[in-house]
Amino acid sequence: MESTEKLTRVVTSATTLFIVPGYAETKMIDIAGHANLAVGTLYHLFKSKDDLLKFVFASTLDPTISDQIQTFPVQPVPDDELVTRTAKVYQQATANLHSIVAQHPADTRFAAILAYLFKNFHQYGAYFLMLERNPHLNARLLNLYKHYRQQLYHDIAELLTSLATTGEIRYLAHPENDAMLIIDQIFWWSAHKPYDSFDTVTTHFDRQQMENCVLQQLTLSYT
Fold first, then answer.
1. What is the pLDDT of residue 199?
2. Average pLDDT, the chain
């Protein structure tokens, strides 16, 4: 088995287990078993669970990082660098959201905003959940996430207000509430449902079909 494939399987398993049952409750042997690897192989890849956690965060920010690893065990990303990378990702995500208004014609901007939120949470939702479920893991990363989440609520509320003003969506008495409703619904189906809902193991669904369903529902509700 190639090292890149092993890393991918380990990251997937660690992500799942760090969310449920949680980082403190998860042992390296649990991750190895979930990834169908020998525990010795896992320790060849990562010296410790903390090093693995940092790699999981880093690989979420840059999915190509596994292809760049040449030596093992993987050297962890320093805390300061991880914080810097995360802050840059949030800044870019915010810039991308605001660019939607300029890049799309009036009759497609609401749909583009919804699609942006799905894409954003598909990529970073597990990272967010790890911080939510393990709030003592890294105070600086948690604070960055809290700030980004509040900024996202604010920005979406402003965009909804703008779209309502131009008649692209219906009038909203409290756009800040609608922003929370839209964001939280999309976050639920993008992150909570596949990772930490109570029936995750027994309930399976096509994510693309569900995304299309939610997009249709929200579009009918607001336009």
1. 81
2. 95
Cα–Cα dist 30/36, whole Å: 10
Which of 217, 25, 222, 56 shows the shortest CA–CA distance to 141? 56
Cα-Cα-Cα-Cα dihedral of 27, 28, 31, 35, to 10°?
-160
| Structure confidence by residue, pLDDT tens digits, 79-137 | 999 999 999 999 999 999 999 988 999 999 999 999 999 999 999 999 999 999 999 99
Task: Give, in order, the Cα–Cα distances in Å from 40 to each of 7, 125, 215.
Answer: 14, 30, 45
| Topology (CATH) of 79-222 | Tetracycline Repressor; domain 2 (1.10.357)
- Residue 113 contacts by C-beta under 8 Å, 6 or more apart in sequence? 97, 100, 156, 159
* pLDDT digit string, tens, across residues 195-221: 999 887 666 889 999 999 999 999 999
Domain ranges for the chain, please list them: 3-68, 79-222
Q: Domain 3-68, what architecture?
A: Orthogonal Bundle (1.10)
